[in-house]
Amino acid sequence: MPEAAEDSRAVRIQGVEFAYPGADRPLLAGLDLALERGELAAVLGPSGVGKSTLLNLVAGLAVPRAGRVEVLGTEVTGLNESKAARWRRGSLGFVFQQFHLLPYLTVSENVALPLALNGQRWEEEAVRSFLERLGLGEQAASYPRHLSGGQAQRAAIARALIHRPPVLLADELTGNLDEETAVAVMDLLVEAVEELGTTTLVVTHAPEVASRSHTRYRLSHHRLHREP
Ligand SMILES: Nc1ncnc2c1ncn2[C@@H]1O[C@H](COP(=O)(O)OP(=O)(O)OP(=O)(O)O)[C@@H](O)[C@H]1O
Q1: Could you tell me the pTM of the whole model?
Q2: Nearest atom, ligand 1, residue 22 CA
Q3: Ligand 1 centre and the CA of 27: distance in Å?
Q4: Does the beta carbon of 146 lie inside 6 Å of ligand 1?
Q5: Where is the ABC transporter domain (predicted)?
Q6: I need a labelling partner for 78 at 20 to 30 A (CA). Which of 18, 59, 113, 141 fits?
């Protein structure tokens, strides 16, 4: 990635310290990260090291006890709950490890949800063609309980990208997918990053995700280390 000016940072984390209540030691400490706009960055590291927690900090779903988290000029740590919720709806797409699809909505309704919550108008057809790109055309009218793990993950990815958020956070993006689908999902992600300039932070163990990311960071000893 080319060197960019200071103000092009999409995500800036400075000196973050975080501990879960009751823990005797901080999980994250002295953690820094700076992502350029349009950067696709992978976060690697063993289970339990705090990767999901890092995504939650960027989303304002976890609050650090020291340090700053800034996303596109908004200081996430300074938002109250209702402002944080509104900011998340407009600015973030989030693919959770457990998908969090709403069981009483169809796949198509789940995917259109961010558009509805943001008060955006949309065409059924646009949602449909988005689902088709992710190989979910047949499942548009299905309920989440009828999906395989891989299909549910793709629905969660579609929901995270449908409103074209400037920032995408993804936990184990291709974790439940076979290799062919994982490559298709990565193609879509790389395309989104290139077309829309989506700044993306993806937690992964998958070599095909890490190798296609612009940058790689390893989380260990409470902080992030840039990898070659
Ligand atoms: N809500 C919570 N309350 C207390 N401890 C938690 C909570 N969530 C996570 N932890 C603990 O914090 C540590 C880091 O969890 P986290 O899920 O961030 O790790 P991770 O690197 O994403 O792991 P994995 O790769 O297994 O998903 C773990 O020891 C976990 O048990």
Answers
A1: 0.90
A2: 4
A3: 9
A4: no
A5: 11-228
A6: 113
**1 in a domain, yes or no?**
no
For residues 206 and 178, is the Cβ–Cβ distance under 8 A?
A: no
The total number of structural domains in the chain stands at: 1
Residue 167 covered by a domain: yes
Q: Which domain holds residue 71?
A: 6-227
Tell me which residue has its CA closest to atom 2 in ligand 1.
20
Tens of pLDDT along the chain (228 residues)?
A: 444 445 668 999 999 999 999 998 999 999 999 999 999 999 999 999 999 999 999 999 999 999 999 999 999 988 888 899 889 988 999 888 777 899 999 999 999 999 888 888 878 888 998 899 888 999 999 999 999 888 888 899 889 988 889 999 999 877 777 888 788 778 878 887 888 889 999 999 888 889 999 999 999 999 999 998
Where residue 176 sits, what CATH number does that domain have? 3.40.50.300
Does the Cβ of 80 fall within 6 Å of ligand 1? no
> In ligand 1, which atom is closest to the CA atom of 205?
25
Q: 33: which residues sit within 8 A by CB, 6+ positions away?
A: 11, 12, 13, 217, 224
Does the residue 127 lie in any domain? yes
Mutate to test the pocket of ligand 1, among 31, 53, 94 (most ligand atoms within 8 A of CB): 53
87 alpha carbon to ligand 1 midpoint, in Å?
25
